[in-house]
Design a protein that fits this description.
The protein is an all-alpha fold and 685 residues long. 74% of the residues lie in helices and 1% in strands. The radius of gyration is 26 Å and the shape is globular.
């Protein structure tokens, strides 16, 4: 039956409605079981097991070895369903797990030290306008299989190989972040070790993408979108109802912004908060003193701890005190370089937390600094605003060039359906993105109003549970020794704000399991598409063309499957190293994708004068400028090299390196193309 027929569409609608009703019934049943005494230790594993099995069942049902089905789902996915699949593919762990946390930590505009805030929402959403207006319809009309295929057809073999390597690099950074999110959620749901959680979730990814490629991934992502939509809207609606008396958070959360502003002023002036800030100032001075001579300071600390251990053993002290001292000794840096890196990072963190509100900006401020203040405040304001715009630019053009996203629009029946699919994608994404700033504001009010001021003896259990998953996710210390939690004494990681929202709001644990399952769906859906993109780049895009045309075969499909399996294992091993926050890794991948693809892709589509050599030169230039800037401006690498913090151009942070790489790529392609045309005209008789 034709994919565009009315009967086919209605059958899909019916199946979607039945699945949604089944999901709601399952949640009600599990809620009843929890109230009847079902242990929390069972609820998490039930959500994890059923989620993975459900996605695996869809993947198995969609298994195929047909190249057209494996690479582009037979080009017969209706526009609305491709929009749902694209939204699920797009939401990712960064959007579902980390975006609300970034808005909580950075406010609406970010800070001078960490740009962000609404730049993520504006940049990612605006990028889809570029996709719909410029990229997707034209690429779909060429009936290709992957984004590097375009470079093969337009610019030849060299550009295709370079595009394939770029697709592998930016997609690998992105997929590592998704697998980190999978491990985070799986370990929280089941209580298993983080690394085992990665393997549990990865099984669901492989059963979808390995067996059926784009065909299985598409229908799995449709199911995953329903799960993550329900999982996101329930807690935000509950918090809005709890605080404001209405579940429509988007329309009502503005009332909380003025309350948050008043609470911020109260916390800034509170004597207990000022004591906390003073403690961190003293800690920052202590680290600064150590950094004057790291080798001597390290030797002194090691000698003092060894003497302390000898004294404890001589006094016959309790064994636990001796072991505690031994752990402190083993935790010391191994050499001077490690000490310098560790203490520099600790000093910067202490300096940040010595600021009002623990270093967080005021939630509703426009930008850091003051446009009418002192010269330093005006400079800080301009830098903050420039970083906001630079980040938004990188996210926007990166969205318009991500290979795994553009490939999604190859699956529709026609060019017109592709345009409609982009519109559906924007609608489905907006349903979540518009609620994200509301969630961040509601959570911040909940923390400031109800969590701050609690006794350390009565803190909720979820704080200790999240700290066991990963100590970097949450830090709670009684710095001033009053046994009362101050705002400056709690530090929440961006990756746990959304996942901890149900427990913070006092919802049943079933909702916590649902939110974790929603985060798992977001991470799995994006990981599926990314792994397929990487495996296709390694196998399909590196194979030679025939007669100047892209071709596929059953053998390529088999090789792509095994490449996908190998890449998944490598990405899992990398994610287990806990290399950084999800949103930081994802943002860096956007800059890299933008610099690699946008100049050549845009000029190749819209300017006949772009030449092959110019495209390769522009891509190499964009990659070199972007990666080079990321490396030389990285605070961690500069500390490791023994360099002073800095290295920024116009104050632009490394995650926005595409701000320099993209224009450089455009300039080189235009210049080399013009030079080749000029030389060609001179050589004509």
């Amino acid at each position: 039956m034709a994919a565009g027929s009315r009967a086919y569409i209605w059958r899909l609608h019916r199946q979607l409605a039945l699945f949604t009703l089944g999901l709601v019934a399952f949640l009600l049943l599990l809620h009843w079981a929890e109230r009847a005494g079902l242990s929390r230790g069972w609820i998490g594993p039930i959500f994890l097991f059923l989620s993975v099995m459900m996605y695996a069942a869809v993947g198995i049902a969609g298994r195929t070895t047909d190249p057209e089905e494996f690479y582009v789902a037979g080009r017969r996915v209706p526009a609305m369903y491709n929009g749902m699949a694209t939204a699920a593919d797009w939401m990712s762990a960064a959007s579902f797990i980390s975006l609300a946390g970034a808005l909580y930590l950075q406010g609406f505009s970010g800070t001078a030290a960490q740009p962000g805030g609404l730049a993520y929402v504006l940049g990612w959403t605006g990028g889809f306008c570029l996709v719909g207006l410029l990229m997707a319809p034209r690429l779909r009309a060429m009936r290709l299989y992957t984004v590097p295929d375009f470079f093969a057809v337009r610019f030849g073999r060299g550009a295709q190989l370079l595009a394939a390597m770029g697709a592998v690099a930016c997609s690998f950074m992105y997929v590592v972040a998704q697998i980190y999110g999978i491990g985070l959620i799986a370990s929280r749901l089941t209580g298993v070790q983080f690394e085992i959680g990665i393997l549990l979730g990865l099984g669901g990814v492989l059963l979808c993408s390995f067996l059926g490629g784009m065909r299985a991934i598409t229908w799995t992502q449709v199911v995953q979108y329903v799960v993550l939509l329900v999982a996101f809207l329930i807690p935000v609606s509950w918090l809005a109802y709890k605080q404001l008396g209405t579940p429509v958070a988007l329309l009502a959360y503005g009332q909380q912004l003025s309350k948050i502003e008043r609470l911020e002023r109260t916390l800034i002036d509170a004597p207990a908060e000022q004591q906390v800030r003073q403690h961190y100032r003293e800690r920052a001075r202590d680290y600064a003193e150590r950094l004057r001579d790291p080798a001597a300071a390290l030797a002194s600390e090691r000698s003092a701890l060894e003497e302390r251990i000898r004294t404890l053993r001589a006094q016959g002290a309790d064994f636990s005190f001796v072991m505690m001292a031994r752990r402190e000794l083993s935790a010391l840096p191994k050499d001077e370089a490690s000490a310098r890196e560790l203490w520099t990072r600790a000093m910067l963190d202490a300096q940040e937390r010595a600021k009002p509100l623990g270093g967080l900006p005021r939630h509703g401020q426009a930008f850091a600094g003051d446009p009418d203040g002192t010269p330093d405040e005006r400079a800080e304001f301009n830098t903050s605003r420039l970083n906001f715009l630079a980040l938004m630019f990188c996210l926007m053009v990166g969205t318009a060039s991500l290979p795994h996203l553009l490939t999604r629009f190859y699956t529709t029946p026609s060019v017109a359906a592709t345009r409609h699919s982009v519109a559906w994608s924007l609608l489905f994404i907006a349903m979540l993105y518009l609620a994200t700033p509301a969630l961040a504001a509601l959570v911040k009010y909940e923390v400031m109003q109800h969590l701050v001021g609690s006794s350390f003896d009565d803190l909720p259990n979820w704080i200790a549970q999240w700290a066991r998953v990963d100590p970097a996710l949450i830090s709670v210390q009684d710095v001033n020794g009053d046994r009362i939690l101050q705002f400056g004494e709690i530090r929440l990681g961006a990756d746990m704000i959304m996942l901890a929202t149900p427990e913070l709001g006092g919802l049943p644990y079933v909702v916590s399991g649902l939110v974790a399952a929603g985060g798992l769906a977001a991470a799995l859906s994006t990981a599926d598409g990314l792994l397929l993109t990487i495996s296709n780049a390694l196998v399909h895009d590196t194979a030679p063309m025939r007669g100047g045309r892209v071709w596929v075969s059953d053998n390529r499909v088999i090789l792509s499957k095994f490449a996908l399996l190998a890449v998944a294992m490598v990405a899992a091993a990398t994610a287990a190293l806990k290399t950084g926050e999800i949103i930081s890794l994802v943002t860096a991948s956007f800059s890299l994708a933008a610099a690699t693809f946008v100049p050549a892709l845009t000029l190749g589509l819209f300017w006949r004068g772009a030449t092959r050599r110019a495209a390769v030169a522009g891509m190499l230039t964009g990659i070199a400028v972007t990666v080079g800037y990321m490396l030389q401006a990285s605070a961690v690498l500069r500390a490791w090299w023994g360099l002073a913090p800095g290295g920024l151009w116009w104050g632009i942070h490394p995650v926005s390196a595409g701000f320099f790489g993209v224009p450089a790529g455009f300039a080189v392609i235009a210049a080399v193309s013009a030079w080749e045309h000029w030389r060609g005209r001179r050589q004509r008789p």
